[in-house]
Specification:
Helix content of chain A: 25-40%
Largest interface: A-B, 25 and 21 residues
Number of helices of chain B: 4
Low-confidence stretches of chain B: none
CATH superfamily of the largest domain in chain A: PPM-type phosphatase domain
Number of domains of chain A: 8
Oligomer: heterodimer
Largest sheet of chain B: 5 strands, mixed
Shape of chain A: elongated
Mean pLDDT of chain B: 90
Order of helices and strands of chain B: EEHEHEHHE
Organism (chain B): Streptomyces griseorubiginosus
Distance between the termini of chain A: 79 Å
Strand order of the largest sheet of chain B: 1-2-3-4-5
Largest sheet of chain A: 6 strands, antiparallel
Pfam family, one (chain B): STAS
InterPro entries (chain B): STAS_dom, STAS_dom_sf
Protein name (chain B): Anti-anti-sigma factor
C-alpha cells in the first residue's frame, strides 16, 4: 500500500501505526487503503486525515510544497497537532466536511504556517472532500491543495510596482514625486510595513524626504542623519553602506524601534532593508529604508521588490532633477539671448550716436577743406570712409537684433523689381568696371510687381554685389531677373574663386567667415550673407547658392509674387520710384577701397577679422547615436561632420531603405532624414518606422528644401518629430538634434520602465491588434505558453489553440473566446490552450480594448494566468460528485458499474468505456457504458490488452495514444477498466490523476453496492421462505402483493401442504397489521399451521390448535385464516374459516358459490372453543379463489360488492390458464393507486392438469391412455370429445415412439393435458426428430397426422434440435 | 407388453366369418388383429362394438383388407372410420 511512493511511503511504513487509532495497516479497511493509494500515487499536493483522531497522511508533493520541516514528524499524528497553529482556521472547515458531508473550497486563503521555524505568511487554494469507510460513513477528509503564496505575494508586489508606474504626468518636482511614491507605498503595508526615504545632502548628511507606515515624528525617523554620525555605531540608520551603493539589512533593536508599526500584521517588523537610491554614473541620491514583513523570508524576490521600488524612486528623482536642470538651462539660454539682443541693440544705438556726431562734422570739414590741403583732404576722406563702414556694420547689427526681436519695421510696397534691381546694380557699375570685370545686368521687366521693402532689398542686392566683387578677379558679374511660375527669380552670379563644397552649408551662417585662398579683402564681419538670408526670408523668399571652386558662384533669390505671404499690416501702396538711397554709398565706397586703383590701400582694417563667435550649441551629455539618411553625399558628409563635431556617434546611409534596415538592426537615438530620397523617401520612412512597434519610438528629424507650413505639417503628420527647412544653420540643426535626443531619452526611460513592469508581471500580458494578431507579450506569457517574443506577431489562428482535428471541442472554446476578443473587445473567460511542448493548460484570460495613444488604433490588452490546477480541481470534485451520485442511486452491482462507466464516458467524451471483471467464471464478464459485447466478440488484441491490464497493480493508470486503462478491485475479482478516447487525444497527467481518483472511488462504491446487494438478496430469500412454498402443486396459482415495499412480505400469507394421505392442505391467512412486524407473526403462524395440518388433516382441529398457539404470540390475536383440505382426485374440499372472507367457487356455467359455511371467530379470540367444519365438492372445470381482504375490501364499499367483483373476474378469465387468470384478477381488482393493504391470493382449478412422462415404448400406450381417460372423466368431458382427445394424443404418442425415438427407445416422452372451462390443451413432447411424413412408404403414419388434425381444432407440430412438440387444443363441446 | 385385446372368431347366422374384438387396438396389437383376420381368405365381419380405441395402426390393417372385411362399430369409433375414409371403402354396420 505504501509502495506507490518510495520516499513518503517508506516513512509512512516506519510509523508505529499500532499506537494510533487506525491500528496496524494490515487491518485497515479497503476504503482507507484505497485512499492512501490514491494519495501516494498522486503528483498533486494532497493530505488526508482519517479516523477519530483525524490521523495525518500526506504525499511527496505536499511534503515538498507545504509541509516543510514538519516532515516526517507529522505522519501518523493527529491533524490538529500537525496543524495546531492554523487549527482555528481549518478545524471548522474539516468539521463541516465531516458533519455535512459536503466538500469545501477555499481560494488563496491566508494561513500562518510554522513549517520553516517561524510563522510564515502563506496562501493556499484547497478543497476538503469527505472520505468514507467501507460502510459509506464519513470518517475522514482529503485535501487537494495548491500553494499560492508566490502568486498572491507576487501579485501584491506587482500591484505596488504598477501603481508606482501609473503616474500619468511625465515630469514633476521631486517633492511631488516623493509624495506620490509615499501614497503608493502606503497602500502595501503587508510588504512594506513602513518605509523611510532619505536623500543625501551636499554636506554628506541625509535628510528625511518621505515616510510611509509611520509619522515623521517617530523616533525611528530622525529628520536628518548627520554626516559624521553616518558610520558611528549610534547612528540609527547606516547611511554609509547605501552611500557606497550597497544594500544592508538592519536588525530593529533598541528603544527607537519599540513602537514600530506592524502594518497589517499582528507584530511589527524585526528587520529592515536599507537600499541605495542609485544614480546612473553618480553617487546615490539617498536611500530607502523598508521595514520587512516578519512573516516572509527576505528571499531574492522580496529583496528584488524592494530594490525595484528604490529603483523607481531613484528614476523619479533623476527625472525630476533633470527636468529642473533643463528648465533652468532653458531659462538661462533665453535670458542670455535676451541679453545679447539688448546688448546689440544698445551697442548699435550707442555706436550710432557718436558716429553721427563724428560723420556730421567730418562732412562739414570735407566741404570746408575741399581743395585746400590735399593731405588734410585725404585724411578727412579716410575718416569719412571708415565712418561709413562702421555705420554700415552697426546698421547691419541693428537689423539683426531687430529681426531677432521681431521688431523689424518693414514696409512692403509693390515694386517693379527689374527696374529697382537694375538701378541698384548700376550703382556698382563703376566699381565693377574699375575692377576690370564685365558687368552684365539683364533685368527684363516682369509682368507683375513684387512686394518689397526697398531698404531691405537694397541691402540684399548691394551685399551680394559687394560680395561678388570681393571674390572675383577675372570675368564678369551678372545680375538677372525673370519670372518663374509664381516667383520672381533674381540671380547674382560671378566668375570668382567659388566656395568649396565643405563651406557651402555654412555660407549663410551668421558670423561665419569662409576661409578662402584669395579675396580682394580680408575684411568682413561674416554677417553680410546671413543678413541677406534673413531679409529674403522676411520677404517670404528663399536664397540659395551654387558654387564651384575656381569657376564662380551664383546666388539665386526667389521671391513670390503677390502679397499673401506678407503680414497685412506691413503692406503699403506703391510710391513713385525713389532713387537709390544713401544706403548704397557705404557699399560702393567700401568696394572701391578693395580695388587696386582705389583711393587708398593703406587703411588698416577697422573691424577685427577674427569673428570667432561660435554658434551656441553644445554636445550631448551622453554620446547618442544618430542615423543620417540623405541621398546627397555632400549633405551626408556635411551633416556627419557637424554632428560628430558635437560629440554624436553617427552612421550615414543613402536612402530610406537602408535607413529602415539600419534602424531595425539597432535603433539609434535619432534619425535625421532628408525628405526627398530615391527608393524610399523620408515621409515613407517615417510611416514605415511608425507601423512597427519596435521602431515606432525612434524620433525622426526631417530635412527638406521645401519651406512653408504645409510641408512641415505633412512631415509631422507622417509621424516625424521635428522638421527643418534647408538651408539651415549648423547651430539650428544641433539644437534640434539635441532637443530630440533628450526627448527620446526621456521617452525611452518610460518605455524601459513599462517593459520592465510588464515583464515582471506574474500574469501573462499581451497586446492584440484589431485583427487579433498578438503583437506584444511579456516574460510570463512565454513562461506559461512557451511562445517567445522572437516570433511576434502571432496572427490568428494562434499556435497555442488546441488542434482542431484532434480536440475539436477545445479548439471551439478558443475560437469562441477569440470571437469575443475581436468582436466585443472585453471579457473574461477560461479556455484550454496547448503549451508549445504540447501539454494542455487552462488559462483564465481577461481582456479590454485600449486606444493606442501613439497610433490612435484600437488594440486589445489582455492578461491571463494559469488556472490549470484550479480547473482540474473543480473538474475532479464535480466528477467525484457525479460518480458518487450514480453509485448511490444504483440498487444493484451491474447497474452501479454501468452507471459509473457512462459517467466516465461522459467525462472524457469517450467513444466507449469498457470494464472486464476477471471473476470466477471461465470468461471475464464485460460491462460497458452502452450495450456490452461479450468477451468473444472483442478483437483478440483488445482481449490481450485487458488481460495484461488486469495484471497491473490497482489504481495505476496506463495510457496509449487513443485510450487509457486502470485496474480496479471489483467484488467479484480484479477488473480492468478501459477508456477508449476514440481519437488521438492527449490523456494528460491531470486526466490520469482523475482516473485513479475516480477508479478508487468506484472500487469503494462497488464494494458498498455489493454489500447492499447481498443483504438485499438475503432479505428477499428470507422473506420468500416465510411467505409460502417454493413449489406449488399443479393446478394452483398464487399472488402476493405486500403493502409496504421494498418488503416482499407482510401480514398475509398463503400455503399449500402435501398431506400424507395424498390430499392437499390449503391455507390463506391474514395477520393484523402490515410490514415487518406483521410478517414475523405471519411466519410463525404459517409454520405452525403447516405442522398442525401434517399432524391432523382436519381443518377444524388445525384451527383449534392454532388458537392456542396464536394466544401465545403477541400480535397474533384476531388473525383470520381459511384452512382447507382438498382431495384433488374427487374435488372434495373440507374447510373451516377463522373469521376469514369466504372462498369463491366459480362454476363452469358462470354461477358463483361462496364457501361461507364452517365459519367461526378469528384466531385466539376464544381459545378452546370448538370450530365447525364444512365440506363441498369442486365440480369439474370450476375455479376456487381464496384471498385476503386486501383484494376486495375498499373504503366506503360493502365487502360483498368486492366479492362479486372478484367472482366476475374469475368468470371473465375462464378460458385462461390458472396462472394467467391470477394475473388478470390482480390487475382487474387493483385500485387506481395500487393496493394499500397486503394481498394474498390462491387459485385452484379442478382438476389439476395431467402431467406425465413415460419411456418411448409402445407398451406405454395403453397405461397412458388409461390415465388420460381417467383425467378426462374428472374433467367431465363429453364422451365424443374425450374419444377425439384420446385418438389425437394416441397418434401423437405413437409418432413419438415410432419416429422420435426410433434409435433410442426408452427416452422420455412428456404428456401434458390442461383443461380450462371451455377448452382443453394437450402437449406431447419428445426429444427426438420426426421423419418427414412419406405417405407412400408409411401411409398409416401420414394418416395419423391427418387424424390428429381432424380430431383437434388446432394442431401445431414444432420440430427442432431438441425434439418435437405437438401442441393441440380443442373446445369442449 | 401389448395392449389387452380379445379376438374371438365365430360365424354369423348367415354363415359368414365373424371376428369379435374387445379391448383397444393400437400399434402393439395390430399384428394379432391382422393374424386373426387372415385366418380366412374370404369375407369376414369384424365386430368392433367392444373396442374403445382404434388408432391409425389398426386402421392400416383394416385398409389393406378393406375389400373382404365388413365392420360392425359403435358411434364412438365413427369419427375415426369416417375421417380415415375407411367407411367409404367398406361396409360399416351399426353407425
Amino acid at each position: 500500500m505504501f509502495a506507490a511512493d518510495v520516499e513518503v511511503g517508506g516513512d509512512l511504513a516506519l510509523v508505529d501505526w499500532a499506537a494510533t487509532p487506525l491500528g496496524p495497516p494490515g487491518e485497515w479497511p479497503q476504503s482507507l487503503q484505497t485512499a492512501v493509494s490514491i494519495l501516494l500515487s498522486s503528483r498533486f499536493p494532497m493530505w488526508m486525515a482519517w479516523g477519530p483522531d483525524l490521523t495525518f497522511f500526506c504525499n511527496a508533493a505536499y511534503r515538498r510544497d507545504t509541509l516543510g520541516q514538519k516532515y516526517p514528524w507529522a505522519l501518523g499524528r493527529p491533524a490538529s497537532e500537525v496543524w495546531a497553529e492554523i487549527w482555528n482556521d481549518i478545524g471548522p472547515r474539516i468539521d463541516a466536511v465531516l458533519t455535512t458531508d459536503r466538500a469545501t473550497w477555499d481560494e488563496a486563503l491566508l494561513l500562518f504556517l510554522e513549517r520553516s521555524g517561524y510563522a510564515e505568511e502563506t496562501y493556499h487554494t484547497f478543497s476538503y472532500s469527505p472520505l468514507r469507510d467501507d460502510t459509506g460513513a464519513v470518517v475522514g477528509m482529503l485535501c487537494v491543495v495548491s500553494e499560492e503564496t508566490e502568486r498572491v505575494i507576487g501579485e501584491r508586489r506587482m500591484a505596488t510596482l504598477r501603481d508606482l508606474g501609473s503616474d500619468p504626468s511625465v515630469v514633476r518636482t521631486e517633492q511631488e514625486m516623493l509624495a506620490f511614491v509615499g501614497q503608493q507605498l502606503g497602500r502595501n503595508p503587508r510588504d512594506l510595513p513602513f518605509t523611510l526615504t532619505y536623500l543625501f545632502q551636499p554636506d554628506g548628511s541625509a535628510r528625511l524626504a518621505g515616510t510611509t507606515g509611520l509619522t515623521a515624528a517617530h523616533p525611528a525617523a530622525p529628520v536628518t542623519l548627520p554626516a559624521d554620525a553616518a558610520d558611528a555605531g549610534d547612528a540609527l540608520w547606516p547611511a554609509a553602506a547605501p552611500a557606497r551603493g550597497e544594500s544592508v539589512v538592519v536588525s530593529l533593536e533598541g528603544t527607537a524601534f519599540t513602537t514600530l508599526p506592524a502594518g497589517e500584521w499582528p507584530k511589527p517588523p524585526t528587520r529592515a532593508l536599507v537600499v541605495p537610491l542609485l544614480q546612473q554614473g553618480g553617487d546615490p541620491y539617498g536611500f530607502l529604508v523598508a521595514g520587512l514583513n516578519r512573516y516572509r523570508p527576505l528571499d531574492p524576490g522580496y529583496r528584488g521588490f524592494v530594490e525595484l521600488v528604490a529603483g523607481h524612486i531613484a528614476a523619479g528623482i533623476a527625472g525630476a532633477r533633470s527636468y529642473q536642470a533643463q528648465q533652468r538651462r532653458a531659462e538661462e539660454l533665453a535670458e542670455l539671448d535676451r541679453a545679447k539682443t539688448t546688448f546689440f541693440s544698445n551697442i548699435s544705438h550707442e555706436f550710432r550716436t557718436p558716429l553721427t556726431l563724428i560723420m556730421g562734422p567730418v562732412e562739414d570739414l570735407r566741404a570746408r577743406f575741399d581743395g585746400t590741403d590735399p593731405r588734410v583732404r585725404e585724411e578727412l576722406d579716410a575718416i569719412h570712409r571708415n565712418g561709413l563702414r562702421l555705420g554700415k556694420l552697426v546698421n547691419s547689427l541693428l537689423d539683426f537684433s531687430r529681426i531677432e526681436a521681431g521688431r523689424m519695421q518693414a514696409r512692403y510696397e509693390p515694386v517693379d523689381l527689374a527696374a529697382v534691381t537694375a538701378e541698384l546694380a548700376s550703382v556698382f557699375r563703376s566699381a565693377v568696371n574699375k575692377a576690370g570685370l564685365a558687368f552684365e545686368v539683364d533685368c527684363a521687366r516682369l509682368d507683375e510687381p513684387v512686394h518689397l521693402d526697398r531698404g531691405m532689398w537694397e541691402k540684399v542686392v548691394l551685399n551680394l554685389l559687394s560680395n561678388a566683387l570681393k571674390f572675383t578677379f577675372d570675368g564678369s558679374i551678372t545680375v538677372t531677373t525673370r519670372a518663374e511660375n509664381d516667383h520672381a527669380v533674381i540671380t547674382v552670379a560671378d566668375t570668382g574663386i567659388g566656395v568649396s563644397a565643405e563651406e557651402m552649408p555654412r555660407l549663410f551662417e551668421r558670423f561665419h567667415r569662409i576661409e578662402t585662398a584669395r579675396a580682394r579683402s580680408d575684411e568682413g564681419s561674416g554677417i553680410g550673407l546671413a543678413l541677406v538670408k534673413e531679409l529674403v526670408g522676411l520677404h517670404g523668399g528663399t536664397i540659395s547658392a551654387d558654387s564651384t571652386v575656381g569657376k564662380g558662384t551664383c546666388f539665386t533669390i526667389r521671391l513670390p509674387f503677390g502679397s499673401e505671404h506678407l503680414p497685412a499690416d506691413a503692406l503699403a501702396p506703391a510710391v513713385s520710384a525713389a532713387a537709390v538711397s544713401a544706403t548704397a554709398e557705404p557699399y560702393v565706397q567700401e568696394a572701391l577701397r578693395w580695388l587696386p586703383t582705389g583711393p587708398s590701400d593703406t587703411d588698416p582694417p577697422m573691424v577685427p577679422t577674427s569673428d570667432d563667435v561660435a554658434p551656441h550649441t553644445s554636445g550631448p551629455v551622453v554620446p547618442a547615436r544618430v542615423l543620417i539618411a540623405d541621398d546627397n553625399a555632400d549633405m551626408r558628409e556635411y551633416l556627419t561632420r557637424i554632428l560628430r563635431g558635437a560629440g554624436y556617434r553617427v552612421e550615414a546611409v543613402a536612402d530610406g531603405h537602408e535607413a529602415l534596415r539600419a534602424v531595425r538592426a539597432d535603433a539609434p537615438d535619432l534619425v535625421v532624414s532628408d525628405v526627398m530620397m530615391p527608393r524610399l523617401d523620408g515621409l515613407s520612412l517615417v510611416r514605415e518606422l511608425r507601423t512597427d512597434a519596435r521602431t515606432a519610438p525612434v524620433p525622426v528629424l526631417l530635412l527638406s528644401a521645401r519651406a512653408g507650413q504645409e510641408a512641415s505639417i505633412e512631415g509631422l503628420e507622417a509621424g516625424a518629430d521635428d522638421y527643418l527647412v534647408k538651408p539651415f544653420a549648423a547651430a539650428e540643426l544641433l539644437a534640434r538634434v539635441r532637443a530630440n535626443v533628450e526627448l527620446s531619452h526621456l521617452r525611452a526611460h518610460h518605455a524601459r520602465w513599462r517593459t520592465a513592469l510588464v515583464d515582471s508581471l506574474q500574469e501573462a500580458f499581451f497586446v492584440c491588434d484589431e485583427d487579433g494578431a498578438v503583437i506584444e507579450i511579456n516574460a510570463a506569457f512565454t513562461d506559461i505558453l512557451g511562445y517567445g517574443p522572437g516570433e511576434l506577431p502571432y496572427p490568428p489562428v494562434h499556435p497555442w489553440w488546441p488542434d482542431a482535428d484532434t480536440d475539436r471541442e477545445a479548439h471551439q472554446q478558443c475560437a469562441e473566446a477569440f470571437d469575443r476578443l475581436v468582436g466585443e473587445g472585453h471579457g473574461r473567460c477560461t479556455v484550454p490552450v496547448t503549451h508549445r511542448d504540447g501539454h494542455r493548460l487552462w488559462i483564465d484570460v481577461a481582456f479590454n480594448p485600449v486606444q493606442d495613444p501613439d497610433t490612435g488604433h484600437r488594440v486589445i490588452v489582455g492578461t491571463f494566468r494559469d488556472v490549470t490546477a484550479e480547473h482540474y480541481s473543480v473538474q475532479r470534485d464535480s466528477a467525484l460528485a457525479a460518480l458518487s451520485l450514480r453509485l448511490s442511486q444504483a440498487t444493484a452491482l451491474p447497474e452501479a458499474l454501468t452507471g459509473a462507466l457512462s459517467e466516465l464516458k461522459n467525462l472524457w467524451r469517450a467513444r466507449q468505456v469498457l470494464a472486464a471483471v476477471f471473476g470466477h467464471r471461465a470468461e471475464p464478464v464485460l460491462a460497458a457504458a452502452d450495450a456490452a459485447p461479450n468477451w468473444q466478440e472483442l478483437p483478440a488484441d483488445r482481449r490481450e490488452a485487458l488481460v495484461a491490464l488486469c495484471e497491473r497493480p490497482p489504481l495505476t493508470p496506463v495510457t496509449d495514444h487513443t485510450s487509457a486503462g486502470i485496474t480496479v478491485e471489483h467484488p467479484d475479482g480484479p477488473m480492468a477498466l478501459w477508456v477508449d478516447l476514440g481519437q488521438s487525444r492527449p490523456f494528460t497527467d491531470e486526466d490520469k490523476l482523475l482516473l485513479s481518483l475516480l477508479a478508487g472511488h468506484l472500487a469503494q462504491g462497488l464494494v458498498r453496492v455489493h454489500q447492499i446487494d447481498q443483504q438485499r438478496e438475503t432479505a428477499i430469500a428470507l422473506q420468500r421462505a416465510i411467505l409460502g412454498p417454493a413449489h406449488l402443486p399443479d393446478g394452483f396459482a398464487v399472488r402476493y402483493e405486500p403493502a409496504t415495499p421494498p418488503l416482499e412480505v407482510g401480514g398475509d400469507w398463503y400455503d399449500t401442504v402435501a398431506l400424507p394421505d395424498g390430499r392437499t392442505g390449503i391455507v390463506v391467512g391474514d395477520c393484523v397489521g402490515r410490514g415487518l412486524e406483521a410478517a414475523t407473526v405471519m411466519g410463525q403462524l404459517r409454520s405452525a399451521c403447516r405442522a398442525l395440518l401434517l399432524q391432523d388433516a382436519s381443518p377444524a382441529q388445525t384451527l383449534m390448535a392454532l388458537d392456542h398457539f396464536a394466544a401465545g404470540i403477541p400480535g397474533a390475536l384476531c388473525t383470520t385464516v381459511f384452512c382447507g383440505v382438498l382431495d384433488q382426485a374427487t374435488g372434495c374440499l373440507t374447510y373451516s374459516s377463522a373469521g376469514h372472507p369466504p372462498g369463491i367457487l366459480a362454476h363452469r356455467d358462470g354461477t358463483i358459490h361462496l364457501l361461507d359455511d364452517g365459519r367461526s371467530l378469528p384466531l385466539a379470540v376464544r381459545p378452546g372453543r370448538p370450530r365447525p367444519e364444512a365440506e363441498c365438492t369442486i365440480p369439474a372445470r370450476a375455479t376456487l379463489l381464496l384471498y385476503t381482504d386486501g383484494l376486495v375490501e375498499r373504503r366506503r364499499r360493502p365487502l360483498n360488492e368486492g366479492i362479486d367483483q372478484a367472482g366476475e373476474a374469475v368468470h371473465a378469465g375462464r378460458n385462461a390458464t390458472v396462472d394467467d387468470l391470477a394475473t388478470q384478477i390482480m390487475t382487474r381488482l387493483a385500485p387506481e393507486n395500487g393496493y394499500d393493504d397486503d394481498v394474498a391470493l390462491l387459485l385452484y382449478r379442478h382438476p389439476a392438469p395431467l402431467e406425465m412422462t413415460f419411456p418411448a415404448e409402445s407398451s406405454q400406450l395403453a397405461p397412458v391412455r388409461k390415465a388420460l381417460r381417467t383425467w378426462l372423466e374428472r374433467c367431465q368431458m363429453p364422451p365424443q370429445t374425450a374419444q377425439n382427445v384420446l385418438v389425437a394424443v394416441g397418434e401423437a404418442c405413437a409418432n413419438a415412439i415410432e419416429h422420435g425415438h426410433r434409435h433410442a427407445p426408452g427416452d422420455p416422452v412428456r404428456l401434458r393435458a390442461e383443461a380450462s372451462v371451455n377448452d382443453v390443451r394437450l402437449i406431447v413432447a419428445d426429444t427426438g426428430r420426426w421423419k418427414t411424413p412419406q405417405p407412400d412408404a408409411n401411409a398409416h403414419r401420414g394418416r395419423g397426422v391427418t387424424l390428429m388434425k381432424a380430431m383437434m381444432q388446432q394442431v401445431t407440430i414444432t420440430s427442432g434440435a431438441t425434439g418435437t412438440t405437438v401442441d393441440m387444443h380443442t373446445r369442449i363441446a | 407388453m401389448t395392449t389387452p385385446l380379445t379376438l374371438t372368431p365365430g360365424r354369423r347366422p348367415d354363415g359368414t366369418m365373424l371376428l369379435t374384438a374387445v379391448g383397444e387396438i393400437d400399434m402393439t396389437n395390430t399384428e394379432a388383429l391382422a393374424d386373426a383376420l387372415d385366418t380366412t381368405s374370404g369375407p369376414i365381419v369384424l365386430d368392433l362394438t367392444g373396442v374403445g380405441y382404434l388408432d391409425s395402426a389398426g386402421l392400416n390393417v383394416l385398409f389393406t383388407r378393406a375389400d373382404r372385411v365388413e365392420l360392425v362399430a359403435t358411434p364412438l369409433l365413427a369419427p375415426v372410420l369416417t375421417i380415415s375414409g375407411l367407411a367409404d371403402l367398406t361396409t360399416v354396420h351399426g353407425l
